[in-house]
Amino acid sequence: MDFKRDVIGLPQSKSMSAILKEKGCLSTTVVLIAVLLALYHIYTSFAGCPPAILHRGIHLFVILIIVFLHSSVRNRNRGYLALNIFLSFLALSTLIYIASDYDEMLFRYNEAEVPDLAFSAITLGLTLEACRRVVGVPMAILVCFFLLYTWLGNYVPGDFGHAGFSWREILDQQFLSYNGVFTTPLGVMSTFIIIFLIFAGFLMKSGAVQAFMEIAIKLMGRTSGGPAKAAVVASALMGSVSGSAAANVMVTGSISIPLMKRLGYPPSFAGAVEASVSSGGQFMPPIMGASAFIIASVLGIPYIKVCLHALIPALLWFFCFFITLHFEAKKRAMQPIDREDIPSARRVLTHLYLFIPLAALVYLLTQGYSPMYAGVMTVFLLVVLIYFRRETRMNFSAIISALEYGIMGALPVTAACAGAGIIVGCVMQSGVGYYLSAALVKMSGGHLYLLLPLVIAASLLLGMGMVTVGAYIIVSILVSPALIDMGVSPIAAHLFPFYFAILSAITPPVAVASYAAAGIAGASPWETGVLGIRLAIPALFIPFVFITQPSLLFLGSPLTILVTIGTSVAGVFCLASVTVGYLIRTLHPLERMGLAIAAIAFFFPVGIPNLVGAGILALVTLLQRRM
């Protein structure tokens, strides 16, 4: 298979002019706008950004223009094209208005003039339409709900009712303050996240992603269930960068799913494996699907510190799937990958230099450089490194394609951030965040273990059909305060709902990662989603551990941290064995029950229960070996 041609998608022999000519006028316009926006962000990462509202406005409204014009690239209907040109004109007009008056706009907060209100209404309308098109109908409905709630709060009974706000007050809040469309999510998107999406574009278009997959296949190919385990490793490498579980599925799943099916895995199981591990990539440092930047901004802590806190839970997520798939492969007697399909050690070693940019990123961040600077330096370092080998070397057209890919990947993330910004503005204006937090605490009766299932339900519900960043923002502003009120550490209070918002990508009925994987595997989306949840059962307990034992987030003494990591690994191991029903051989029902008790014992804080769990695990292992 010519992976480079498949991944890049643009034949390397064609000139840029020939490619643009083939694309047509509208497609060429979209490509040029995307490339100019990418170059703008690269430049501002070096030279510094203009005033915040102008910078965020440039990013948002240019993205909106691309969203609308790109829609007509896929749908050539003339009436639809005319509508999209009109919407693009409105977006451009709003950007011009901001650019001409950005230094005075914020001073008119609470005293909005008629043009301010008009362009605010246009901004809300365009954002809603963009959310509907590239994020999904659920996101658009959620934004509309919060706008209506802010307007009609005086009709809402009980504790959630409020005085209500006029549309003039709502439009003023949303457009002329940093507690609206232009709030933190859009700010982080337009400064930090966009650079790493451009980085992902270069990884994709250079063929570096295929190199990661080859490394994973070389490491795991000859073990039982080799392609499934390779998917785990590749998703850990790629999922952190992509920013989207569905995008990760499409990239790594196009290789791993056919391999799994060829070795005898049922299509729905192959799809479930890829969907589950691809979703977990969003929790994996150093980039965490770009959400780490939002968490750092909200909590006011260094970005690298967020990565450190999330590291062990992320590794546990992948260990969970790795050991579950190992037991499944042993139980099903799955064969390893054929030797001829495994790349040579020499070939794999030639790919290792592609890890240098990720290492450089971590180094720059630990040395105190800003994420913007670290991100853009990582992009440049990758561009330099890929010229060392002919198969990853990029010509001018491939570079243009990489820049375009990065911006196109930013469309759903930007729309989600802007939509989430509207929700943040509504929450701030109506005060519903405080009331929801109080209501959740009241419903739980002040008991943390009763509150956590409510937070999980909210996270899965609010995260349905959304990209990772948008899901996290909405969930965190609504439910994290309740956890903090119950004494949970702030970082754990944000990582807990983030973890389950990620899981919404594989949870029916709106499981975007499962749908993408099912499409590649030729399987039922519902069956794929259900199997994905079954595979994820051991991973569901990890957030409960770091809520009750913050040492799993590197909070506490070194000894406590080490013991907690050890007991958590043992608990996940036991639970994976219980889920599959296999250890060294098929588990007897009593053995399965014993390992379930051991798993729960291991998840308790350091003490006697851990010793009980160790004893049960040792006993079951001995019985399995002797029979």
What does this structure look like?
With 627 residues, the protein is mostly helical. 75% of the residues lie in helices and 0% in strands. It contains 29 helices and no strands. Helix 3 packs across helix 9, helix 9 runs antiparallel to helix 14 and helix 11 runs parallel beside helix 13. The two termini are 46 Å apart. The N terminus is likely disordered.
The overall strand count is 0
The structure class reads mainly alpha
Integer-rounded radius of gyration:
25 Å
Q: List the helices and strands in order.
A: HHHHHHHHHHHHHHHHHHHHHHHHHHHHH
What would the average pLDDT be, to the nearest integer? 84
Low-confidence stretches: 1-16
Main β-sheet: number of strands, strand sense, barrel status? none
Distance between the termini: 46 Å
Strand fraction: under 5%
Q: How many helical stretches?
A: 29
Short account of what is shown:
By secondary structure, the chain is mainly α. Helix content is 75%, strand content 0%.
Tags for this entry?
29 helices, mainly alpha, disordered N terminus
